[in-house]
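I have been asked to look over a protein record a colleague put together. The record follows directly below this note.
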Amino acid sequence: MKLEKAIQTEIDTAFLYHEMVKLSVDEELKFFYGEMAAIENRHVENFFAKIIANNPKYKLKGPSLRARIIANLGNRFGTNIILSILTNTEKSLSLAALQKKQKNNEPIIGSEARHFNILKSMESFTGGGIGKIEGRHRTVGGNALRAAVLGANDGLVSNLSLVMGVAGVTMEGNGVLIAGLAGLLAGAISMALGEWISVRSSQELYERQIELEFEEIENNPEEEKQELILLYRAKGFSEQEATNAVTQIWDDPEKAKQVLITEELGINPEELGGSAWEAAFASFFLFIIGAIIPVFPFFFAKGFSAIVFSAIASTIGLFGIGAAITLITGKSFVKSGLRQVLFGLAAAAITFGIGHLIGVSIAG
């Protein structure tokens, strides 16, 4: 079973690298991702040979549903989604390899994390053509996917808890519906405002850092050039290679500024172009999507029936969110979905119990 799980990971990884080849516009990147895909395909062949030695009837499978969904998201919203998943996968594989060697007291030779390190270098290296990742919707990546899932989860769990808490106090009238709608709007507005402040504050901080860096370039260009050479040497370049690369970059002042922003300050220029208002509206609507689920049964039902319908709808929503999280983690969608249901319903049960106690106390 372990080998079959491992070979599926390799199949999915090779498939996603092939998708990066198709979606990338830079020829160097196409070559790079094609080579990575070829390596993963060789891993598949090695695992397949081991499996059929014990199970001759084993049939090689295609990419998993998760891999196909990620590829579709990458095609629609940009390659950063796929690249983020690939980086997480390579990191997990490298950690597993290291742990296995440590457990068996085998020597660590430094190649265990090679693929992960290559991908991280690709993300940070901006010189020449290698940094030219396909630009369409570049800012939509794994973090955005994570934020979308968690935003909907926050809305569902918080409003489910609120609705059940109020229902515990009283099941009569429209009190639960009013409280649910008020919680939905208050939570969505709070999330939107928090996201706006977060994005805008980060942008203002980055803008100030960039202003200071540009002042350094104007006042001490040779020092800044030497710092960049040292940064490239720290990445593994020889002194001559680093000097040649930086000299070529320095011939274009605008390019030099962009490289310094990325390499020295660690700022992704794409983040500066994002809109705080777009982030705010996205958070607002994502929260509403989750928060409306436990509320809508109270539009057409009342009392205990509405509570049951709300719990059923919320259970389905929680399971769906838990399953969606596995797009990021790669874990079992059943296990993740059930865990999400357990935590969400436990929170709802606690608030319902507290609300019921409060209601009894008031009535007494």
User: Anything to note?
Assistant: Residues 142-205+275-363 form one domain. Residues 124-142 have pLDDT under 50 and may be disordered. The longest helix spans residues 175-219.
